[in-house]
Amino acid sequence: MTDVLARIPYARFLGLRTQMEADEMTVIMPFQDKLIGNPLLPALHGGSTAAMLELTAVARVALSFPRLRLPKPINVSVAYLRSGRPRDVHAQARIGKAGRRVAHVTVEAWQEDRANPIATLSAHFLIAEDA
Amino acid sequence: MIDPRLQEILPQLASAAAHTHALGFQLEGVEGRRVRMRVPYREDLVGDPETGVLAGGLVTALLDHVGGMAVWVAMNRFATVATLDLRVDYMRAAEPRKDLLAEAECFRLTRSVAFVRAWAFDETTADPVAAAQAAYMLDSDGGRGPGANLKGEES
Predict the structure, then answer these.
(1) Nearest to A39 among B18, B56, B61 (CB)
(2) Which of B79, B78, B138 is nearest to B114 (CA)?
(3) pTM exceeds 0.90
(4) Minimal Cα distance from A45: which residue of B?
(5) Which domains does chain A carry?
(6) Is the ipTM of this complex over 0.90?
């Protein structure tokens, strides 16, 4: 399998890594100082977390629907559940429904404890080649 | 009228955190309650190498940040704020090799929550790349203070 995220400049900027275990894909964002948005707490920038969630969704859709073009986001909705600590972030995506043109994806991100996610994303992507 | 103490730190609030600095965020200006920011185009911020279009995640990061700036302007002071949720509609791809701009306005401020709308564009707000609706929690550090996220236990 070719790693989609390795081809995306913004995913490289964030330092994202993909881990495959059977059919389960986990994306990891190793902690770097440049991901920090609040230096006092310190906490990850909401934009770091959101972008990582969205790229996890892109990678998941591209894995299930391999085609020439990358899936294009129509909209994304992010809920921030906990402040992101200066640690690695893990994320897994699930495709809830994929029709002819649109796929709906949910992604959950966590740090040490999978049971306590730091953020979730719900998104629609255009997957039709000619859309 | 913006409090001069807030006015003075607005450029830093726009671009001085590690993430906003790494992305190259810049404050363009404030007009009434509306804040405008810019991120200069860079190859390493691209989301699709085939087209050279900036990443959706970058658009989201800029909208999240300019929204927070609009909250500080509406509060007329600096406070710890945290995004509660953020929804972004991507209306069209950003033009390759063009800077990305964004504007935000906080249209309702309650004791705990700020409601914000924001737009991203490359030429004019009339032709947006994306639109966002977001809510922010105010004074969100809950008195935990500096270094709270470095403590071992889950808070």
Answers:
(1) B18
(2) B138
(3) yes
(4) B19
(5) 4-126 (3.10.129.10)
(6) yes
Is the pLDDT reported for residue B155 higher than 80? no
Cα A113 to Cα B98: distance, rounded to the nearest angstrom: 40
DSSP state of A111: S
Which chain B residues have any C-beta within 8 angstroms of a chain A C-beta? 17-23, 43-50, 54-58, 60-62, 64-65, 80, 82-90, 93, 140-141, 144, 146-150, 154
Query: Sheet holding B130-138: strands in order across?
Result: A17-21, A24-29, A89-98, A102-110, A119-126, A72-80, B81-90, B130-138, B113-121, B100-109, B34-39, B26-31
Q: Domains (ranges, CATH) in chain B?
A: 4-141 (3.10.129.10)
Q: How far apart are CA A4 and CA A96, in angstroms?
A: 21
Mutate to test the interface with B, among A2, A75, A125, A126 (most CBs of B within 10 A): A75
DSSP assignment string, A33-100:
GGGEEETTTTEE-HHHHHHHHHHHHHHHHHHHS--SSPPEEEEEEEEE-SPPPSS-EEEEEEEEEE-S
Which residue from B68, B104, B118, B150 is spatially nearest to A111, judged by alpha carbons? B150
The 10s digit of each residue's pLDDT in A27-84 is: 999 999 999 999 988 999 999 999 999 999 999 999 998 887 899 999 999 999 999 9
CA distance B29 to B35: 6
CB B27 within 8 A of CB B11: yes
Q: Which two tokens stand for residue A61?
A: 């859709």
